[in-house]
Amino acid sequence: MLNADEPEKADLIWRNGAIMSADGAVSARDRGFTLGDGAFETMRLREGRIVFWADHRARLLRGLAFLGVPTPACLDEAPEGVFELARRRGLAAGDAVARLTVTRGLSAQGLAPASNATPTVIATLAAAPEATPTPRQLTPYTEWRRGVEAASQFKHLSGYAPNIAAARAARSVGADDAILFNEAGRVVSISIGNIYAIDAAGCAVTPPLCDGALPGVCRAILISRGLVDEAPIDRSRLDEDLLLVSNVARGVQTAELADGPRWSTATAAQKKAADRLQAAFADALAADALAADAAPGAARMED
């Protein structure tokens, strides 16, 4: 229980190994703030524990290595720190969402980073998004096309301008999200997740990484189980195939373009394919959560 000297629950974060108030947690000289010099992961919690931690950790480390940011000394304390933060925030029951952000840390002015900078690591929490029984409504966004680059393979702080612009455009027309395209005009993703096209025969494909798709954790699960193939998705397929979208916070959801095919007219094969993908992610989520609950140290974290 918090005492009178502790900050309000909603203001609590985990920073560099300690739980503290969000106020003043980031310096005005932190390169994450000034230059977007860092990477992040958005992760699902179940009963306060990070699900798919190994996958998120691996992608985060790939991003930090690309940026040349040293691995933070406290990184492997994150699961326990997030669990305690969830408990203190009242989010340790059921599902929640955590964001883990790593920046290069403090540095003098200029682009070249200091060689002795100490990374800043911050975890924040939010309630899990509410489930939506109806398909997510999408709109194409072509004003800003994503380039295909090495930095598209992880979540970096300075690379989300197209996603933000797409999300704003979607909201302006009453849609839930927007579809982004690459410079060749092929589908890449939605602003906050991966996208899949399912043809009338029930065959599901998702854009390949070489087209700029993010290697999403949910996406990797579906591919590894042989349920989804990687293949380019041209704009014309959006007028023919049914769509699914995914991220770890929301799982696998049906989606529709305003002027595209409707799930209400799906073939039996398309419905079966969607059910298989949704069930596969749900099974993986349950299995990983169970493994985390049984892992050494889980009982100690409950103390």
Question: How does this model look, in words?
Answer:
The chain has helices at 31-34, 53-67, 78-89, 161-172, 217-224, 268-294, 298-302, and strands at residues 12-15, 18-21, 38-46, 49-50, 95-103, 120-127, 136-146, 177-182, 187-190, 194-198, 204-206, 229-230, 242-247, 251-257. It has seven helices and 14 strands. The strands form two sheets. An eight-stranded mixed sheet has the order 9-8-7-14-13-10-11-12. Strands 2-1-6-5-3-4 form a six-stranded antiparallel sheet. The longest helix is centred in the C-terminal third of the chain and has 27 residues, at 268-294. The protein is 27% helix and 26% strand. It is globular and about 55 Å long. By secondary structure, it is an alpha+beta fold.
Keywords summarizing the entry:
7 helices; disordered C terminus; 14 strands; alpha+beta; single chain; 303 residues; six-stranded antiparallel beta sheet
Provide the fold topology.
Layout: E1 12-15, E2 18-21, H1 31-34, E3 38-46, E4 49-50, H2 53-67, H3 78-89, E5 95-103, E6 120-127, E7 136-146, H4 161-172, E8 177-182, E9 187-190, E10 194-198, E11 204-206, H5 217-224, E12 229-230, E13 242-247, E14 251-257, H6 268-294, H7 298-302
Parallel strand pairs: 7-8, 7-14, 11-12
Antiparallel strand pairs: 1-2, 1-6, 3-4, 3-5, 5-6, 8-9, 10-11, 10-13, 13-14
- Over all CA atoms, what is the radius of gyration? 20 Å
Strand composition percent? 25-35%
Which series of helices and strands comes N to C? EEHEEHHEEEHEEEEHEEEHH
Shape: globular
Main sheet: strands, sense, barrel: 8 strands, mixed
| Average pLDDT metric | 91
Tally the helices.
7
Oligomeric nature of the chains: single chain
Q: Which stretches are poorly predicted, pLDDT < 50 over at least 5 residues?
A: 1-5, 299-303
CA(first)-CA(last) distance: 14 Å
Q: How would you write the strand order of the largest sheet?
A: 9-8-7-14-13-10-11-12
Q: What is the helix fraction of residues, given as a range?
A: 25-40%
What is the total tally of β strands?
14
Instruction: Label the structural class.
Output: alpha+beta
